[in-house]
Amino acid sequence: MTVSPAPLVRLANGVEMPQLALGTWPMNDAEAAVAVAAALDLGYRAVDTAENYGNERGVGRGVRASSVKREEVFITTKFNRQWHSVDGARAACEASLERLGFDYIDLLLVHWPNPDQDRYVEAFQGLVRLLDEGLVRAIGTSNFKPAHLQRLFDQGLVPHVNQIQLDPWHRRDALVALHREKGIVTESWRPLGSGSDMLADPVITAIAEKCGRTPAQVVLRWAVQQGFATAPKSINPERMAQNLDVFGFTLSDEDMVALDALDRPDPGMLDADHFGH
């Protein structure tokens, strides 16, 4: 089974990124190698990993084991708080390149702002240098809130991507509006929620039944229909194919309004002012 690759979104520097990637947390190296190879052979052309996931070596092996050339695959990875400095960003990049077995990274992100140590501006300045040298094709942030982004803007720095928790239960309207104002692509992590609770929401299941689609496909379509990039995780080839197959149908305005209305307070949501590795 193969599925058509996801459409491309253009980043502010002109680099094109597939709108839907394979997420790999919490796979280990062995699982990632199998899943990545299977996903690429199914039609995926983007993979999301991170230093903290501990599976970059497996991702690299999976790419090499697939039938797809490296230059056709968009690889995103992220680095931890210990590398938050100009020189640290280079060390993190070089370590990820070694683990992946590649000579460049398509998108490198500061994984969390970690404002308690207050060095994320320097980390991003390091990313700019890596971009200028061609070690990375695009740069960005993950889990940055408006105040964190503003510190970058104040220095004339604008990420190409900000990867955030975002789904119908966790709308981030103010942050998304800021992204659009600044030309930052919004990418959602854990787009299908934690566990299966959100996918069992009666509003989502009713729309899925009406559309002849799975609840996961409805939620992913909600994201991509707004122009967001996203990276659902699966190790099951059938579900991988279903997750990628969300570009051939459209949710009605009524469906989108109903999904938007599901937003709710979540006291357990990770707060980037206090959490981060």
Give a structural overview.
There is one protein chain. This protein has 277 residues and is α/β, with parallel strands linked by helices. It has one domain (8-260): TIM Barrel, CATH 3.20.20. Helix content is 39%, strand content 15%. It is built from 10 helices and 10 strands. The strands form 2 sheets. Strands 3-4-5-6-7-8-9-10 form an 8-stranded parallel β-sheet. The chain has a two-stranded antiparallel ribbon with strand order 1-2. Helix 2 links the parallel strand 4 (46-48) and strand 5. Helix 1 (29-42) runs parallel beside helix 2, helix 2 crosses helix 3 (86-100) and helix 7 packs across helix 8 (215-225). The longest helix is centred in the middle third of the chain and has 15 residues, at 86-100. The termini are far apart.
User: What is the CATH domain class?
Assistant: Alpha Beta
Major β-sheet annotation: 8 strands, parallel
Q: Any idea what the radius of gyration is? A: 18 Å
Mean pLDDT: 97
Number of E-type strands: 10
Structural class: alpha/beta
Give the number of helices.
10
- The SSE order reads EEEHEHEHEHEHEHEHHEHH
| CATH superfamily annotation | NADP-dependent oxidoreductase domain
- Distance between the terminal alpha carbons, to the nearest Å? 38 Å
What is the CATH architecture annotation? Answer: Alpha-Beta Barrel
Give the strand content.
Answer: 15-25%
Count of domain modules:
1
Sequence of strands across the biggest β-sheet:
3-4-5-6-7-8-9-10
Unreliable stretches (pLDDT < 50, length at least 5) are: none
